């Protein structure tokens, strides 16, 4: 038998990590597709880390990301999750932003799906050439956004947020369009955005409610053009 005064030896090395965040969000130092997730995490007061990648870092990081894309949500057990709206819905379910009522869940999903079409276009002026940019902006302001805003107008008019008085996943998608593009002085074509907002007063009022609900995050996030 081992001498009781001799410390027990083990072939296992126990490593205890402290201060590990529950979530890490990996995305570029832009708003765009990562911003709805950041806003939800901030609003929920979750324990999370905002990992902002530079374009110079991206080639070395890319192979470790799901489908070699970001946004990527990393859990504290090392699991990595991809696809921005899937991440948003996952966090919504975990943190109380995805409706349990089937009809409200449908309304939430309907607005997310509509917003995806906007996100597929709305970032493009930032990366367009000088000769291409006017036509790209024209399409967004006169085609993409009016179609989207007409589709969600009833949601913006009927209550504080899309499914009622409480923010849901879709609000972080829809509201981000307002605060990151429509009213962001660092973004493009602000004169055109201002006119568009005046043409859709319900969305403008909704956007201001979204801003007020997320002012803590909006006041501290870095100013970026998209």
The assigned structural class equals alpha+beta
What's the end-to-end separation, in Å?
Answer: 68 Å
Describe the sheet with the most strands: 4 strands, mixed
Quaternary state of this entry equals single chain
Textual characterization of the structure:
It is a single chain. This protein has 226 residues and is of the alpha+beta class. The protein is 51% helix and 8% strand. It has helices at residues 35-43, 58-61, 84-95, 102-122, 133-158, 169-182, 190-199, 201-213, 215-220; strands at 23-28, 48-53, 72-75, 80-82. A 4-stranded mixed β-sheet has the order 2-1-3-4. The model is unreliable at 6-17 (pLDDT under 50).
Sequence-ordered SSE layout with sheet pairings:
Elements: E1 23-28, H1 35-43, E2 48-53, H2 58-61, E3 72-75, E4 80-82, H3 84-95, H4 102-122, H5 133-158, H6 169-182, H7 190-199, H8 201-213, H9 215-220
Short descriptors:
226 residues; alpha+beta; 8% strand
Summarize this entry quickly.
With 226 residues, the protein is an alpha+beta fold. It has helices at residues 35-43, 58-61, 84-95, 102-122, 133-158, 169-182, 190-199, 201-213, 215-220, and strands spanning 23-28, 48-53, 72-75, 80-82. The protein contains nine helices and four strands; from the N terminus they run βαβαββααααααα.
């Amino acid at each position: 038998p081992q001498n009781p005064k001799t410390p027990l030896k083990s072939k296992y090395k126990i490593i205890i990590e402290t201060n590990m965040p529950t979530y890490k969000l990996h995305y570029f130092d832009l708003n765009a597709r990562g911003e709805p997730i950041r806003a939800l995490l901030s609003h929920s007061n979750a324990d999370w880390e905002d990992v902002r990648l530079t374009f110079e870092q991206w080639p070395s990081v890319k192979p470790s990301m799901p489908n070699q894309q970001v946004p990527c949500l990393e859990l504290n057990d090392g699991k990595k999750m991809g696809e921005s709206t899937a991440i948003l819905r996952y966090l919504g379910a975990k943190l109380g932003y995805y409706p349990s009522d089937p009809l409200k869940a449908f309304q939430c999903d309907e607005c997310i799906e509509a917003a995806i079409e906007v996100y597929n276009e709305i970032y493009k002026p930032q990366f367009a050439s000088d000769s291409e940019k006017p036509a790209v902006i024209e399409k967004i302001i006169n085609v993409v956004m009016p179609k989207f805003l007409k589709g969600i107008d009833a949601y913006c008019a009927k209550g504080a947020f899309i499914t009622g008085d409480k923010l849901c996943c879709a609000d972080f998608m829809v509201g981000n369009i307002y605060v990151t593009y429509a009213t962001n002085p660092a973004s493009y074509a602000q004169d055109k955005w201002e006119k568009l907002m005046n043409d859709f007063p319900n969305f403008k009022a909704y956007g201001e409610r979204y801003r007020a609900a997320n002012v803590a995050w909006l006041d501290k996030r870095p100013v970026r053009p998209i």
